[in-house]
């Protein structure tokens, strides 16, 4: 692997790989899925080489305390040693286990932290808080009434009084009763001229399609919060990302909406460091480097894009006549946005300026979406570099269907068609 090959020549105090490991050179008969994706870090070395990872080794870590960050550091030689020689331990986890690990770390290191929401003391509907009430008590991990507006308002009040408040909305589809609290009252620091502050509030919520959720259990509402100034929005793609980004979100001195793609809770599995670490908010990650086309996405569609790229290179009998020969070795740069607000436009612009073409993919409807905002920014900043219009592939501007859920989402065929159209412009 890349980390192992480069290890003897690295300066471990400053350097790290810029891209995730890429196994596309290995021919496979079947297209990749989440189970065998090259975007996932399945070995200990790969996990420790996660770009942007910072260790937080302090015994007490709270929200926004600059003095506590003196212990932050990047990977060093000692971290890569075998576990029995003092190296960093990792453990095989799926997304819900990684989120539980992050929440356990917060409760253990921040004694002002509280976790609450519908059914969280029982483990939550997706088991992300399983066992936490037994370990830390019902006073710190507790159920609330079924009232999203009340959960958000209660969290704002707790945060204003100095607690680290981690609230769970059982499904992102039901977050809209709390909309007023999140987009208006969470601006408490600005509204009060700095006298009061609810920045230690984090809202967790399962989001996106699950295959059979239909209208009220498969929506992606992130675009509704694009104009909620002061509120950050994060969507992780994998267990390592979920743990590192959630720890950063909880400790960030601003309110954060942390949306967890429910289809990935059990399907995405990685080796995850068991000790405390963070990944940066507001920073996109280049998963694959390329020179011909930039594809930007976040969450589950990243794995669908990987499948589409496989079919582009190995179309098979059904697609052989539809995929041009000269595009089968296309060099594609794949970017995971990770943070929706504020999004990392600099990384995207740098990539599009190099490739000249861009495709944006997400599950949420297209109108007034993340892709709308990104496409406008790319057009404004990269106009003289563009060789084709920015292409957007998203959910349809209709209610989310149950019977036709597979037709609603941008699948690998739509993505493949979008790639060909963009390259043939």
UniProtKB/TrEMBL annotation:
MF terms (GO), sorted A to Z: branched-chain 2-oxo acid dehydrogenase activity
Enzyme class: oxidoreductase
Pfam families assigned: Transket_pyr, Transketolase_C
Protein's recorded name: 3-methyl-2-oxobutanoate dehydrogenase (2-methylpropanoyl-transferring)
Keywords, comma-separated and alphabetical: Oxidoreductase
Domain Transketolase-like pyrimidine-binding per the UniProt entry, residue ranges: 93-267
Span list, region Disordered: 1-27
